[in-house]
From TrEMBL:
It comes from Marinibaculum pumilum. This is MmgE/PrpD family protein. Belongs to the PrpD family. Residues 289-460 form the MmgE/PrpD C-terminal domain. InterPro entries: MmgE/PrpD_sf (IPR036148), MmgE/PrpD_sf_1 (IPR042183), MmgE/PrpD_sf_2 (IPR042188), MmgE_PrpD (IPR005656), MmgE_PrpD_C (IPR045337), MmgE_PrpD_N (IPR045336). Residues 23-262 form the MmgE/PrpD N-terminal domain. It comes from the Bacteria.
Amino acid sequence: MNQFSTDLGTEAGGAASRPLSQVLADFAIGLDHDTVPEAARQRAVLLMLDAIGIAFACTRYDFAHRMLSGMASLDAGGDMPVIGMAARLPWRDALVMNAYLAHGLDFDDTHVEGVVHATAAAMPTALVTAAWRGRSGRDAVTAYIASVETAVRIGAAAKGGFHQVGYHPTGLANAFGATLAAARLLDLTAEQAAHAQGIALSTAGGSLEFLNDGAWTKRMHPGWAGMSGATAAALAKQGFQGPALAYEGRFGLYNMLLQNAAASCDLPRLTEGLGDVWEVAKVAVKPLPACHFAHASADAAAILAQQHGLTADDVESLELAVPEGVVKVICEPEAQKRRPANPYEAQFSVHYLSANAFLKGGVGLRDLEPDAIRDPAVLALADRTSYRIDPASPFPKYFSGEAKIVTKDGRTLTHREEMNRGCADRPLSAEDIVSKFMSNATMTLSPARAAEVRDAVLMMDDADLPADDLLELLAG
C-alpha cells in the first residue's frame, strides 16, 4: 500500500488522521512524472487527443460560436488560443472555452465508476495553464493525470448519488481535479493546494436541469470547473485560506449536497490506490456521440437488427432494460424522450438513440443534426420503444443495456450488452481512438493538417515540446 492510502488512517474516535484534501494535495503536488507507468501516460495522451478532436468538430456548431461571442465580450484582451477558432482570450477564459468545445458534443470520455467526464476539464486546464506558464507538454500531461486521478475518485465516492439529487458530477468533481492541476503548474505548495480545494468547494457546481429542455448549460460545466480550479489555485498561492475539510466536513462536498444520503458514500475511495492504481487507464472513450448511459442499449438494438435482418416494419415493440440509476437522465419523461425537441435532448434519449441505431446500424454526429432528429422512421420506432429497470445491471461498474424486440410475427428476440463498448474492461484500442480523432478533426481540418496535429499531440509526453507551441498548433 502506498503512502497516500496509509496516511488516511484513523485516530481514536474514528476521526481521519489528516484531511482528505491534504492527502490529495500531497499526491498531486508530489507526483513525479517518471513514477507514472508508461502505459498510463500513453493512455493519458490518447485521451487528450480524443478531446482535442472533439473540440475541432464542435467548432462547426452554432452553440460554439455563441459561447465564444459571450466569452470574448467579457474582456477584449488576452493572448491564449482557442482550439480550431480564430480567437484569443485571457488564460481562464481560454480554459473555459476550450473545455466547452471538448464537451460540447457529448462525445468525450467518461470514467464509468465515477460517472465523470474527466478529460473535458483536465485537458484544457492542464494544457492552457501549462502554455500560459511557459511549461512543457510533458508538464501538461502530468498535471492532467493528477486532475483525472482526483476527479474520478471524488465522483466514485458518491456512488451515483450526485445524479440522483440533480447535480452533474462533471461540474462538481472536476472543479477539485482542475484545482490540483492548476496548483501543480502554478507551483503551489501542498499546503496551499489543500487550501485551494477548500476554496473550490464554494464554487463547484453543475445542475442537471438542462435535461428538461435540452438547454446548453451542461456544455459549460467542465469549463466552469476549470475556471473554479484555476481561480482557487491562484487565490491559495497568495495565501487565501480555504476550509480544511472540503470533502468530509459537516458542510463539506458530500454532506452539503447529498444530505442524508451522504452516509452511504465511500470517502476512503478518494485516496484509494493513489500512486498505485491509475484510474486514467480505466477512463472509457465514447464510441457514440451521446450520453454514455444509453450506449449499450443502442448497441444491443443495432445488433438485433443486424443479426436477424430486421426492419422497422418487423417490430411490434422495442423494450430496453437499463440500470435504475440512469432512468432520470435518459428515460424520463418518456413522452419527451420519444420526441426530442433538439439534438441535445436526442443525445439523452435512450428511446431515440436505440431506434436510430436499430435503423442505421449505429449513431453518428450526423444522426443528431436538427433535420435528422425529425426523421419520421426513427420517431415512429421510438414511439414503439419503452424501458424497464434492470435489477441485474452491474451499474455503476458497467453501463449495461439490453434490447428486447417483439416482432409482428410473434417472435421475441433479446440481446444484452453487459459491458458498454469502450469501458475499462472492453476498451477502444489506440488505433480506434486515433481513427476517431481523425474522423472528428477532419470535419473542420484538411487531412494533412489533422495528421500534423495528431502527430504533435501523440509526441507530447515523449518530447520536451513547449505547451504554448502545441496550443498554437491547435489554434484556428
